[in-house]
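Issue 218. Parser rejects a valid record. Input:
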Amino acid sequence: MSTHPTTPADRADDTAAIRSLLERSATAWAAGNGEAYGDCFTADATDVTYVGTLYRGNREIGRAHQALFDSFLKDTRLVVDLVDLRFLGRDAAVVVTRGDVRKGGTKAGKLGKLATYTVAREADGRWRIAAVQKTQRKPLMEAFSFRAQPATRPAAQ
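Output the parser choked on:
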């Protein structure tokens, strides 16, 4: 398996399918449909939430999110903006996104979370999320770090 990134132009169909996967997960979230959300994940997936909870497998992810959609996350939607996509061979990719959970129709505001997804093409040809880890961004802490030690600033900023 190659660990060198493949340019998106070489993988236009796969890139579109992965974007569609992320859109499907956001659509399921907005509908409050835990089963559909869980279906975006592999059977053995891991989901590490930004508060540190670890869910294992698409069924547990779907079940737990249904409980969240019925309570704390009721009437919310997931906003996801793809930042980086690197293919790792033919059937795997790493996706970095900025995102957030918004209440109702709220659109404005900075995207305060980062998520790293590992996605895999399964035997049925569909891309699914094999792992996701979400992190709450701390802009003030970042700014302090960059000011105190400028060499910690990422080159892309």
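Fixed in the parser; the record now loads. The CA atoms of residues 91 and 125 lie 9 Å apart.
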